[in-house]
Design brief:
single chain, 130 residues, mainly alpha, elongated
Length: 130
């Protein structure tokens, strides 16, 4: 019986480490970071809705940018403003407690993850986005 105990303990330890690593990666995910900041002020149901919204918008941002932005840096602020307006309308329609600043952070993080535009271009564009 003792010869089975050590492998079970090791298996349990490996499973625990995997869970900790996955949770850590999700919490530190760049495009989920704005959502995790809201965790202390929303209910678990709202949190699930916010996470779903964030994941959906992450994909939507990539699609929208590929379809709407030609790669010319001068056009980026206008495209970002239109996308932020759309994100804000979607959040309001779902009654999600997201302010424009949080949406801007989410958008910036998503653009970074998708590697859309250079960092300096994004920074300049966000300075001009209301």
């Amino acid at each position: 019986m003792n010869h089975l105990l050590l492998p079970l303990i090791l298996l349990d330890l490996v499973a625990a480490v995997i869970v900790v690593v996955v949770v850590h990666k999700l919490r530190n995910s760049a495009w989920l970071a704005p959502i995790w900041k809201l965790a202390s002020s929303v209910s678990p149901d709202q949190m699930r809705a916010l996470e779903a919204f964030s994941r959906e918008q992450h994909q939507r941002i990539a699609e929208y940018m590929r379809a709407s932005w030609s790669g010319i840096p001068d056009q980026l602020p206008g495209v970002l403003t239109a996308l932020l307006d759309e994100m804000e309308r979607t959040a309001r329609a779902r009654s999600l407690p997201l302010e424009r600043d949080v949406l801007k952070t989410m958008l910036a993080s998503s653009l970074t993850v998708h590697r859309i535009a250079k960092g300096s271009e994004r920074n300049e564009a966000f300075k001009r986005v209301a």
